[in-house]
Amino acid sequence: APQALHGVEIVDGVSDFPHLLYFSYVTLTTLGYGDVTPAIPLTRTLAYLEAITGTFYLAIVVASLLICI
To answer: What is the distance between the alpha carbons of residues 32 and 25, in angstroms, rounded to a whole number?
Structure first.
């Protein structure tokens, strides 16, 4: 949906894909700069789930590295 995220512009029906990747990376790593934000409940829920996934992924990577030491 064109109004799913604040900070991402739709030009000629095409979304600004690099901004979408940026939002996904910032959410996955739980940085949360706030320049691109979810605007509707569905995208808020997806961003929330992606942030949880990123947190668990980081925990698994760190645990794997500690086991190897």
So the answer is: 9
